Amino acid sequence: MGLLIIGILAAYLLGSISSAIVVSRLLGLPDPRGLGSGNPGATNVLRAGSKTGAALTLVGDVAKGWLPVFIVMQLGDFAGWMIGLIGLAAFLGHLYPVYFGFQGGKGVATALGVILAISPLTGGLVILTWLLVAALFRYSSLAALVAALAAPIYLALIQPDPWLVVAICVMVLFLYARHYANIQRLMRGTEPRIGEKKPAT
Q1: Residue 175 lies in a domain
Q2: Residue 201 included in any domain
Q3: Among 65, 72, 166, 194, which is disulfide-ready with 110 (CB 3.0 to 4.6 Å)?
Q4: Angle between helix 51-75 and helix 80-95 axes, rounded to 10 deg
């Protein structure tokens, strides 16, 4: 149990590192929290005009969800519910980062990292779903919402560990709550499309 607590704390602290803010500062880009949806994530770094920064942000956010879960799964002594807690800790670290006043991003990429560590096939299907919806509608938020909703369904079919499915479902609930403003803008038709540069609303 002590090792589990250490793992949860480490996962949370790793998840608290905001890749978007760190990358933006290193590259001299505007604060991503002042662009587009106001979310410190890869999409807003892209809106700042840096494809490299957006790619680095995406990789960083995925990695901090993937790494702690992957390490725990390699140890082989953790049950599904323990792995789920580790993944949730990294995810919640991104949403409520201790380093940035508990004001974080929406967790899409970090959740994807967790899913990729649990089941690469599930993660691949989630990525394909996001790409399809994004290509069709050009809304990052809509693509994220659809892909998130599909994620626990894919996992239940591919790797039906109930605790892991529950953990992903909890993440989906948080993702939808964090996307409330995006959902409202999508309904009003005012949500920025991918690549658009608009001030936070």
Answers
A1: yes
A2: no
A3: 65
A4: 150
User: Angle CA(93)–CA(163)–CA(181) in degrees, nearest 5?
Assistant: 45
Does residue 106 belong to any structural domain of this protein?
A: yes
Quote the tokens at residue 69: 């879960």
Please choose, from the candidates 67, 60, 63, the residue with its C-alpha nearest in 3D space to the C-alpha of residue 45.
Answer: 60
Half-sphere exposure of 164 (CA within 13 A, CB side): 23
pTM: 0.90
In a domain, 196, yes or no: no
Per-residue burial over 97-124, b if 16 or more Cβ lie within 10 Å, else e, is beeeeeebbbbbbbbbbbbbbbbeebbe
Q: Are 194 and 113 in contact (CB under 8 A)?
A: no
Segment 51-64 mean pLDDT: 94
In which band, very low, low, confident or very high, does the pLDDT at 198 lie, cut at 50, 70 and 90? low
Region 16-40: what's the mean pLDDT? 86
Cβ(49)–Cβ(28) below 8 Å: no
What is the average per-residue pLDDT within 126-146? 95
- Three-state SS at 199: strand
Residue 199: the pLDDT is 46
Domain that holds residue 77: 2-188
Nearest to 71 by CA among 112, 117, 17: 117
What are the φ/ψ torsions at residue 159 (nearest 5 degrees)?
Answer: -140, 80
Average pLDDT rounded to a whole number, residues 51-62: 94
